[in-house]
Specification:
By secondary structure, this protein is α/β, with parallel strands linked by helices. The chain is about 15% helix and about 30% strand. The chain has a single domain, classed as 2,3-Dihydroxybiphenyl 1,2-Dioxygenase, domain 1 (Roll).
């Protein structure tokens, strides 16, 4: 088995941690450190890691001034509670970049917004747009 640990640089780990927990409907918790936190699914799978800018000697996480957050990166989450995720996203108070629609490539509903750091986040349903057709393959 292989897993990726996507790590993004953030200015405020606590704020971003709370934002992603709310968006994804995760059980509230605190990051492990002021400079680092892992967002975990109910089964312990790492969904996303948050790393404070400049906290260590990672060249790509040195400073937000040296790197444009989100340039070339799309955080794409497949969720089993799409409708609830949309309600949570609207409750975060930021406008959606893309209103809910069916992606013609995947056949699944999705929407997009920016997180507090400016990263582009897309939420996609694990199911087809057609009721009763089961999960969709691919991203």
């Amino acid at each position: 088995m292989k897993r990726t640990w996507t790590i993004i640089g953030v200015r405020d780990v606590d704020r971003s941690f709370y934002w992603y927990q709310t968006l994804l409907g995760l059980v509230p918790s605190r990051p492990a450190h002021p400079y680092w936190g892992q967002l975990l699914d109910a089964d312990g799978t790492v969904l996303l890691c948050l790393h404070a800018w400049g906290a260590h000697d990672h060249p790509s996480l040195a400073s937000p001034e040296l790197a444009m957050p989100g340039n070339g990166l799309l955080l794409f989450f497949r969720v089993d509670d799409f409708d609830a995720a949309l309600v949570r996203a609207r409750g975060l108070g930021l406008p959606l970049d893309l209103e809910p629609q069916v992606n013609p490539a995947t056949g699944t509903p999705e929407f997009s917004l920016r997180d507090p750091e400016g990263y582009h986040v897309t939420i996609s349903a694990l199911r087809d747009a057609s009721p009763g057709t089961g999960p969709t393959r691919g991203a």
